[in-house]
Amino acid sequence: GFSYKRRYLCDSCANSLFWKMFLTNFLFVLGILPSIYLKIKSLTGRDPYLKELAKANGLARKGQHQKASIIFDRLYERYPDHPGLLMNEGLGNLIGNDVNGAVNCFTHSLKACSNYLPVAQLMRRMQKPGV
C-alpha cells in the first residue's frame, strides 16, 4: 500500500528516518524516490546558527557541562526557551552529575512546551524508583 504524511523532524531524526524508509522501500521503486528526497532535504537548508549545537552536545556527552552551558547560553539568545535545547542541556547536566541543573532544564523545557514528549518521558523515568 501507499501512505503519505507530513512530518517535521530535526536533521538527525530525518537521517535515521531516511535509512528506515530507504531500506523498507528498497524493493519498491516508488518508495526510493521519496527516501532520496528526504535525504536531500535533511542535508540542505540547515540553520548555520545551530552548528554550535553539535559542539555543545559533544562537550556535554564528555561530562563538560559547564563548557557546554556557555554555548547553550549563546544558542538561547537566538532560540529562547527552545524545549529541545533545554533538554540537551539538561542531559549534559545529568551526565555531569548535576541532577538539580538537569531537573531545572527539564522543568523549563516543559514550561516552554508542556507536551514536549522527549522531556516528559525523561522526567517520568527519573521519578520511577530504581531507574
What can you tell me about this protein's structure?
With 131 residues, this protein is mainly α. The chain folds into 2 domains: 11-43, no CATH class; 48-127, Serine Threonine Protein Phosphatase 5, Tetratricopeptide repeat (Alpha Horseshoe), CATH 1.25.40. The protein is built from 7 helices and no strands. The protein has helices at 11-24, 29-43, 51-61, 65-78, 83-95, 99-112, 117-127. α3 packs antiparallel against α4 (65-78) and α5 runs antiparallel to α6. It is globular. The N and C termini lie far apart (41 Å). The relative contact order is 0.09. The model has no long low-confidence stretch (mean pLDDT 86).
Layout of strands and helices, then pairs:
Layout: H1 11-24, H2 29-43, H3 51-61, H4 65-78, H5 83-95, H6 99-112, H7 117-127
Helix pairs in contact: 1-2, 3-4, 3-5, 4-5, 5-6, 6-7
Brief rundown of the structure:
With 131 residues, the chain is mostly helical. It has seven helices and no strands.
